Amino acid sequence: MKNIKDLLYNGLISGLIGIGIGTIWMAMDFLFSLNGQNPATAKIYLTTFLFWTIISFLIGIFFYLASWIFNSEKWSLKKQIFINFFVCFIAWFLLNLLIDNFSISLKMVIRVTVDFIIMYAVAYGGYFLHLRNTVRRINAKLKEK
Predict the structure, then answer these.
(1) Which CA distances in Å does 138 have to 109, 131, 133, 141?
(2) Is the pTM of this model over 0.85?
(3) How far apart are CA 68 and CA 37, in angstroms?
(4) Is 41 helix (H, G, I), strand (E, B) or coil?
(5) Average pLDDT for the chain
(6) Does residue 85 surpass a pLDDT of 80?
């Protein structure tokens, strides 16, 4: 029962983090798309906002589930990161194909790849930074003893 609670809690937190990152991403995209327009008069549709909020939540949950790859003790950390990166990238690419009605172009591939690399660096960069700080705290406590 505790494992199910932990799974739901961590999935929810990851989804909320996804919404946070997605909202920042959407705001930056919105600001860059203004093309000199006054931001006060620009509009964003509620359906668009809700769609991207839900997608961001699901992406956050997907990143959490994809992080289970790191639980495999048979693989080196390098192999885990490599596999996780490509599993997430393929899912991200397929999502973008679905959103773009399966129209593919070189510009779309480059945009999707750059977007994903930035998103991956933010998501897992933050996670590894947190992990590094946790290890430092643990090592400091061990030195005290």
Answers:
(1) 42, 11, 9, 5
(2) no
(3) 44
(4) coil
(5) 82
(6) yes
* Torsion (CA) 104, 110, 112, 115 in degrees, nearest 10: -170
Q: Which two tokens stand for residue 103?
A: 């129209």
Q: Which distant-in-sequence residues (6+ apart) come within 8 Å of 100 by Cβ?
A: 108
**Helix, coil or strand: residue 103:** coil
The neighbour count for residue 116, using CB atoms within 10 Å, is 19
Compute how many other C-beta atoms are within 10 angstroms of the C-beta atom of residue 45.
8
Place of tokens 């509620």: 46
Average pLDDT over residues 80-91: 87
Contact 28, 118 (CB under 8 A): no
Residue carrying the six token digits 């769609």: 51
